[in-house]
Design goal:
The structure holds 2 protein chains of 2 kinds. By secondary structure, chain A is mainly beta. Chain A is built from 2 helices and 7 strands, in the order ββββββααβ. The chains are: A mainly beta, B mainly beta.
């Protein structure tokens, strides 16, 4: 990807190690490079990681913890199911640009 | 206690939206007294120097964040991208978030924020070596500094504006996190693997970029560990508990602390002592000074701060929002008694003393003065006592509202304002002046540019003495004994009779009116 160009699939949306700098949560977004529609959201969470949630955006109080787009990735590697994608769609996240339209972080 | 990264450390937060200036950490609850070290890597517009970033937190009383370093296009070698580091101490174990605002123009505000919660830092001054740099051509960074204390810990924040992909750690260094933010920048956060600083020895933070970048900005900081207390005490010949040839003994007196959520901050000072007892959001801070002592009693939101001063002593008693501030002045003493919203401030003065007793909204502020003493008594609704640019003066304001004592640019002035309302004693630009204003309303005493002047305004309403008075003159306005005397007694013009007599004109015999005491003097 060149600077300023649209991102290409897969896009690593989050790499959030905890205080150990070893245990972490990671998020990748797979999408169609032409239509930009998300085809899968893949996550990884180390069991000992202090963080349990991925927060996309912030809530009304400006805090990621209260974001309406927040979910707990399961321990280990995980690929979203159609039901998961339906939930993303229900909260307004359809394309990768929708996903990138927010601050992204991990929370406890 | 050795330095350690707290498990309370929040996740790296990334702002992927170029039109949004802020990036906020997730909520975290720091250890009491832990050092908070936000590291920030951010985008900026091509070829432009961004405005300075700002930082805040979600606490009701915001922490006093200090910027260590901020590298941007404004600095050599004028490459794009930003890197910055701040610090503050956590006042207590309250849940909080931290937000940094990018000063770059939209839509180039993408940023990543990695806040490190560090325990075991030196509360007297947690930052040792630190700095910032940039490069117009770099595939790696080897940032060296001379450690200032054993077991210190180095941290590094990098912005690769060219987006060359995730970075990795070099020798002796741990990667905290690195990734692209969209297609804007690549951020990288690093630290030494362990707190391995050796005082006087070179420590290096090594980072490898995704590829050679023509726009790299970074900042680094050395965090200092606390110094164990007993080592110095054990050999302290000034300690009354130390005797030559005998081991140091533990004092029999015990100190029990029942405080909840105490906090204290002492920053960048020398021989600084800060004590805070029970309460919340108590703050004692000392910046760039020497031999400062600050005490904050129980209550909430009390603050004692001495900036750039020497030998400053500040005390804040129980209550809320009491404040003591001394800036750039030596030997300042400030006391704030029990109540709310009191303030004692000294700026650029010497040997200034300010006292405020119980009440609300009282204020004492001398500026650029020497040897100043000011008192405000019990009252409400904001009575001011001010002394500006004077030397050796005394101002007293007793109970009441809106009493005022002011002294501008003079020497050796005494002003007293008694109880009542709207009294005023003012003396600008003079020397050796004494003024009193007692009971009553709207009493005023004003002298301009005079020398050796005595002025009295007793009880009454709308009494006034003002104007320019020559050296050696005596001016009295008003009559505490039912007498009115005006003008110059030597000028042979009297109005009123101190012995219940009314005299008008010249008592030397020309005109006498209303004399009730025989014989009549003419």
């Amino acid at each position: 990807m060149a600077k300023g160009d649209p991102v290409t699939s897969p896009y690593m949306a989050l790499d959030a190690p905890d205080y150990t700098a070893v245990n972490r949560i990671q998020v990748w977004v797979d999408f169609d490079n032409t239509t930009r529609v998300i085809s899968a959201v893949r996550t990884h969470r180390d069991q000992a990681c202090m963080y349990h949630y991925v927060a996309v955006g912030v809530g009304p109080d400006g805090k990621p913890d209260s974001s309406p787009i927040k979910w707990p990735p399961p321990v280990g590697d995980y690929t979203s199911t159609p039901a998961d994608l339906a939930w993303f769609n229900s909260v307004g996240v359809v394309t990768v640009e929708d996903f990138m339209g927010y601050q992204i972080t991990a929370t406890v | 206690m050795a330095l350690a990264i707290s498990s309370a450390t929040p996740s790296i937060a990334t702002q992927t939206v170029g039109t949004t200036a802020t990036v906020a950490t997730g909520s975290f609850t720091p250890d009491i007294g832990a050092l908070l070290l936000p590291l920030w890597s951010a985008n900026s517009a091509t070829g432009a120097s961004p405005a300075a970033p700002s930082i805040t937190d979600s606490l009701a009383t915001h922490l006093a964040w200090l910027l260590n370093d901020w590298q941007s296009h404004a600095d050599a070698p004028t490459v794009d991208g930003q890197a910055a580091a701040w610090w503050a101490f956590a006042p207590n174990a309250a849940s909080m978030t931290v937000t940094v605002t990018n000063g770059a123009a939209s839509p180039d505000r993408q940023a990543a924020l990695a806040l490190q919660v560090i325990t075991g830092a030196d509360t007297r001054g947690p930052i040792g070596a630190h700095g910032k740099a940039g490069s117009a051509s770099a595939a790696s960074i080897a940032q060296s500094y001379t450690a200032t204390r054993n077991d210190s810990w180095g941290f590094l924040v990098v912005c690769d504006w060219d987006l060359k992909g995730p970075m990795s750690a070099g020798a002796g260094t741990t990667l905290i996190g690195s990734a692209d933010i969209g297609t804007a920048i690549t951020y990288g956060f690093f630290r030494r693997i362990t707190p391995d600083g050796v005082a006087g020895a070179t420590t290096t933070l090594n980072a490898t970029l995704g590829a050679t970048s023509t726009s790299v900005a970074w900042a680094w900081v050395e965090v200092l560990p606390d110094i164990p207390y007993p080592l110095g005490r054990r050999r302290n010949p000034y300690s009354p508990l130390w005797r030559p040839g005998k081991p140091w003994r533990r004092p029999k007196t015990s100190f029990a602390e029942t405080a909840t959520a105490p906090s204290g901050t002492a920053e960048a000072g020398t021989v600084t002592l800060g004590l805070t007892v029970s309460g919340t959001a108590v703050h004692v801070g000392q910046l760039s000074g020497s031999s400062a002592l600050g005490l904050a009693g129980s209550g909430t939101a009390k603050k004692v701060v001495a900036l750039g001063g020497t030998c400053a002593l500040g005390l804040a008693g129980s209550g809320t929002a009491a404040k003591r501030t001394g800036q750039a002045g030596p030997a300042a003493l400030g006391l704030a008694g029990a109540s709310t919203d009191r303030k004692v401030a000294v700026e650029r003065g010497t040997s200034a003393v300010g006292l405020t007793a119980a009440g609300t909204g009282s204020k004492r502020a001398p500026q650029t003065g020497l040897t100043t003493l000011g008192f405000t008594g019990t009252r409400t609704s904001g009575p001011p006592v001010r002394a500006v640019a004077g030397v050796g003066y005394l101002g007293l304001a007793a109970s009441g509202a809106a009493a005022h004592v002011a002294r501008v640019s003079g020497t050796a002035i005494i002003g007293v304002a008694g109880s009542g309302t709207q009294r005023h004693v003012a003396k600008p630009a003079g020397a050796a002046t004494l003024g009193f204003a007692t009971l009553g309303g709207a009493v005023k005493r004003a002298v301009s540019r005079g020398l050796a002047v005595l002025g009295l305004a007793p009880s009454g309403y709308a009494t006034r003495g003002s104007g320019q008075v020559e050296p050696g003159d005596l001016a009295v306005t008003g009559d505490p004994l039912g007498v009115s005397v005006r003008g110059d007694p030597r000028g042979h013009t009297l109005t009123g009779d101190p012995l219940h007599t009314t005299a008008t004109g010249d008592p030397s015999g020309q005109t006498v009116t209303g004399d009730r005491l025989p014989p009549t003097v003419t």
